[in-house]
Specification:
heterodimer; A: Cytochrome Bc1 Complex, Chain D, domain 2; 11 helices; B: 272 residues; mainly alpha; Cytochrome Bc1 Complex, Chain D, domain 2; 12 helices
């Protein structure tokens, strides 16, 4: 109850405008959490936690990604690209359309700071695909000019802030869907078309193999800037 | 008639002999083997036993130089051999080891001497890695030579293979411009190499190498020559998108990068 009243006060301060810029970070964080939990209050807004959970662990069963601990700039950027239609996501686009610039900053800050354990994926990993995926991930397929995935996504697939997301420990349904989306141009927001080029040069089986491999790893647990 | 033909035949044979002698004197021949590029043997064929161990050790030094050959790498240097010789020294046009092994000993204008491969490797430690030359008898050099030897298995000796060395771009149409180069850098390179050329790290490890500053190659290095750097960039950068910049963009961005601060040439320091 007290919590509710308090967040209500924080809210009215926010709505009143740029009341206390020095306390900005704290209120931004609180507002981000509020959006995650209940949406931003505009008609049709949905709470992020319905699909990404409050702790950002995601929902493997529907292929909703884990976003806990992704770089703040990356999260904000992806939401803006969904709004702009450069990233085709029928589910997400309905949800984030009415988020303001500040809402996006807030919710990106919140999710970049939360921690979530790895969730069980649907189904069991296929060991032969995992080992094939590991090879591509750590060695690349240079005959097709594909560098090792970890050269851009960091050792262990832990990401390289601010614009290279972590992919280790992400659910496999989501990973495979993204690789397809890049390959078939439904996702066109990647800087310089780097991921589109790579995903297009992978065969369907290779895409599956790397998705299996990275989903078999543990996600990073850390605070990213 | 027959006599004349025989004469002609003898003349042709003599001319061929002469020209091959001539070529032998003027150094190796460029062999363009169609579109075929030499393929090094797969890792799975590295034999068990001491030779295979040395090859594997060479690869570790090559890809994690700061860890496995620490004492020869400059204190602040953040590069590995693979930073410039991509795909563990295999990628064509990034001075691959298979293209190098078969071309030494060779005359180099850098020091006006005929250099052996081990001396060439020492040079990359001293200049590209801003460190010190490992002795030719050191395990470090032996392992790197074994690794290069292994990778060249089946390659013809003394022949300039396609994909060897770096690409040599034709002279730029316009004088390279730092102003245009800076724009190319911001649009196509800063994502990975950072706005200040510092590279990027993840969890404490270097992921993208620095292209200038204390952690990068020094002013004695091959890439400190704009023509070499432009050729390297043209075929290899942005990573996975080689051959996507125009020649002019490659010259411009190379001029910009080499205009930035980096460690001094150790040969000039020594002279002072």
């Amino acid at each position: 109850m007290l919590k509710k009243v308090l967040s209500g006060i924080a809210l009215s301060v926010l709505i009143a405008g740029s009341a206390a810029p020095s306390a900005g970070a704290v209120t931004l964080m609180a507002w981000g959490k509020h959006i995650a939990k209940e949406g931003n209050g505009t008609p049709g807004s949905t709470a992020c936690m319905e699909c990404h959970r409050l702790n950002g662990g995601g929902m493997p069963s529907i292929g909703a990604p884990r976003i806990a601990g992704q770089p703040r700039r990356y999260i904000a950027r992806e939401i803006r690209e969904v709004q702009a239609g450069k990233r085709y996501g029928p589910v997400m686009s309905g949800v984030v359309q009415n988020l303001s610039k500040r809402d996006i900053q807030a919710v990106a800050l919140y999710y970049s700071r939360v921690h979530a354990p790895k969730l069980r994926d649907v189904g069991k990993p296929d060991p032969s695909l995992v080992s094939k995926g590991r090879r591509i991930a750590t060695r690349g397929l240079w005959a097709k000019n594909i560098p090792a995935c970890v050269q851009c996504h960091g050792p262990g697939g832990y990401g390289v802030p601010p614009l290279f997301p972590y992919i280790a420990g992400q659910n496999r349904t989501y990973l495979l869907r993204q690789l397809m989306a890049y390959a078939f141009l439904k996702r066109q927001d990647d800087p310089q078309g780097l991921m589109r080029g790579i995903a297009r040069r992978l065969t369907p089986e290779e895409r599956k193999a790397v998705a299996e491999y990275f989903s078999s790893l543990q996600p990073p647990d850390r605070d990213v800037p | 008639m027959t006599v004349r033909l025989t004469f002609l035949g003898a003349f042709i044979v003599a001319a061929m002999l002469l020209s091959s002698v001539d070529r032998a004197w003027s150094g190796p021949v460029e062999v363009m083997q169609g579109t075929e590029i030499f393929t090094p043997p797969p890792d799975s064929e590295i034999p068990a036993g001491p030779f295979g161990d040395l090859v594997r050790k060479g690869e570790k030094i090559f890809t994690q130089t700061g860890r496995f050959a620490r004492k020869y790498v400059g204190a602040e240097n953040k590069m590995t051999c693979e930073s410039c010789h991509l795909d563990r020294g295999r990628k064509p046009y990034s001075a691959p080891l298979w293209g190098a092994y078969v071309m030494y000993p060779r005359y180099r204008s850098k020091n006006h001497m005929v250099n052996k491969l081990d001396e060439r490797i020492q040079g990359c430690f001293r200049f590209s890695m801003n460190g010190t030359a490992p002795p030719v008898t050191s395990d470090t050099v032996k392992a790197l030579i074994a690794y290069s030897f292994w990778m060249s298995r089946g390659a013809p000796v003394g022949v300039r293979l396609k994909g060897q060395g770096l690409v040599k771009l034709p002279p730029p149409a316009r004088t390279p411009s730092l102003f245009r180069g800076k724009k190319v850098y911001a649009a196509r390179c800063a994502l990975c190499h950072g706005a200040h050329g510092q590279g990027r790290t993840s969890h404490g490890g270097q992921v993208f190498p620095p292209v200038w500053g204390n952690g990068s190659y020094n002013k004695g290095a091959g890439l400190y020559k704009i023509a070499k750097l432009a050729g390297f960039i043209k075929m290899n950068m942005p990573l996975s998108k080689g051959d996507s910049l125009t020649d002019q963009e490659s010259w411009d961005v190379a001029a910009y990068i080499d205009s930035q601060p980096r460690p001094a040439d150790p040969r000039k320091l020594a002279r002072r």
